[in-house]
Amino acid sequence: AVKVPAQFAATDGDAVREVRERAAYLDLVVGSLLEGEGPERRLTAELRGLLRRCPRPLLVVRRGPMGMQRPLLAYDAGSRADEALFALAYAAVKRGLEPVVLTVADRARGASPLDRARAYLDRFGVKATYVSAHGPVVPSIQETVAAQGCDAVFMGSYKFNRWLEDVVGGILEQVLLDGEVPVLVT
Question: What per-residue string of b and e applies to 144-182 under the rule 16 or more CB within 10 Å gives b?
Answer without folding.
Answer: bbeebebbbbbbbbbbeeeeebeeeebbbbbbbeebebb
